[in-house]
Amino acid sequence: MKNFDNTFLTDKVKIIAGCDEAGRGPLAGPVVAASVIFKNDLFIDGINDSKKLTEKQREELFSQILEKSKCVGVSVISHGIIDKINILQASLLGMKTATNRLKIKPNLVLIDGNKCFNSEINNIAIVSGDSRSFSIAAASIVAKVTRDNIMRRLDKYFPQYLWAKNKGYPTKEHIEAVKLYGPTPLHRKTFLKNILPEYYNSILELN
Fold it and tell me: Exposure of 118 by Cβ count < 10 A (0-12 exposed, 13-18 middle, 19+ buried)?
């Protein structure tokens, strides 16, 4: 994975950032993006796509990434903005914002997925980047752990939705809770079309 990143190094590209997001699929909560820059010769054993790691592994690597990286930028895009501009645009906004928060300006940003964000900084979309690129994988871990921690804190206010367990994703228990108790102010209204069609249609009428 580190070798993959280093193939992009040239005389003009000496600083590479990896960028990814977490939370595109949940019914509730924000989408979180992270951007990470390492020294070109630094390697952390165990870094991989966050989805392929256990929660304990992610948390251990999260600490190492923050300690050993040159800099990390993080952005949290709220459920309200997701409803307003859609999840794709919110994810791209999050990745752009996270990159702009880096203390060091990269020459190139490697982004997980197939879409780039508009920026003066050159960026390249890498399909399955979180399983190919060392820096993207690190960003995926930072984004995932950050978002999971947010959802655990929010769970204290809405325990019946089991966010500490499901992190807002549409599990059977979460969907049943939404149907039973209705949506919270932190649910993404545009994600409830198939779960609460009457509620979704009423929101459309109000808008």
Answer: exposed
